[in-house]
Write a structure and sequence with these properties.
With about 240 residues, the chain is an alpha+beta fold. Helices cover about 20% and strands about 25% of the residues. It contains 6 helices and 13 strands. Strands 5, 6, 7, 8, 9, 10, 11, 12 and 13 form a 9-stranded mixed sheet that branches. A hairpin with an 8-residue loop joins β6 and β7. Bound molecules: uracil (URA).
Length: about 240
């Protein structure tokens, strides 16, 4: 990677400032002053500014667990509404984060934000079978017909047949259901229950690929995934 880019990402300086600092001889790479902004450096190189080492190591990608509140849209930018990226972008000014999988505007729960395009693709590709779990409240009790239909693969009103999914009772309320999907079709859960004339009142994503939404997060809050959680996600990709 170019030194000016690497320095900007590691230090948080704007790229123009990082270039100036380099040409003035303020930057050391692995103990030696480097004055060329376009010098190639390894992503493991140690940096010092004015002789003071920069702490931490370079993070190739960022993985954020966001508790999406209702009313926020799952997009990077939107003319009218607050987006999931707006909620975290201020903390990652030099990263192009995007949501790896969408939730409807009214839905809540776990949205994974990342700049790792390859991982996002793998999580979303139906062939990789990454499980997502949702807690759903219906306007009618869950029936055996729905459970069997979900397990066999629901055929939507437009004729599209979906992959097998699970709909299980969640607790004592017969209208509260835990749904497990390995696919991500637009409005999928609402359309699946729609086949049985059941309406969805609330929809909350609890987990992605075996990584659960942190119970300590309130709506609108986020934290970075731990290394172990990133590993778990990567291992769930078949
Ligand atoms: N299915 C839906 O219908 N909505 C969501 O937000 C997620 C899955």
């Amino acid at each position: 990677m170019r030194l000016d880019k690497y320095l900007a990402e590691r230090s948080g300086m704007p790229r123009s400032e990082s270039r100036k600092a380099i040409t003035k001889g303020r930057i050391m790479v692995d103990g030696a002053v480097v004055r060329k902004a376009d010098a190639a450096v390894a992503e493991t190189a140690a940096l010092a500014v004015d002789g003071v080492p920069l702490a931490g190591s370079y993070q190739k990608n960022v993985y954020v667990m966001l508790y999406k509140p209702a009313g926020v849209v799952s997009a990077s930018r939107d003319k009218k509404d607050t987006t999931v990226v707006d909620l975290v972008a201020g903390s990652f000014p030099r990263r192009e984060l995007f949501p790896a999988g969408r939730l409807d505007k009214t839905s809540t729960g776990f949205v994974l934000l990342t700049d790792d395009g390859a991982l996002a693709h793998d999580i979303l590709a139906p062939a990789h079978h990454v499980e997502k779990q949702y807690l759903v409240t219906l306007d009618t009790p869950l029936t055996e017909e729905m459970r069997r239909g979900f397990a066999a693969g629901v055929t939507l009103a437009d004729g599209q047949t979906l992959a097998p999914a699970a709909a299980d009772p969640a607790g004592d309320d017969p209208c509260t259901v835990r749904v497990t999907l390995r696919q991500g079709v637009y409005h999928q859960i609402k359309r699946m229950f729609g086949v049985y004339n059941a309406g969805v009142n609330t929809l909350h994503r609890e987990s992605i690929g075996g990584v659960a939404l942190d119970a300590a997060l309130a709506p609108g809050e986020w934290r970075e995934l731990t290394d172990a959680e990133v590993e778990r996600l990567k291992n769930r990709i078949e």
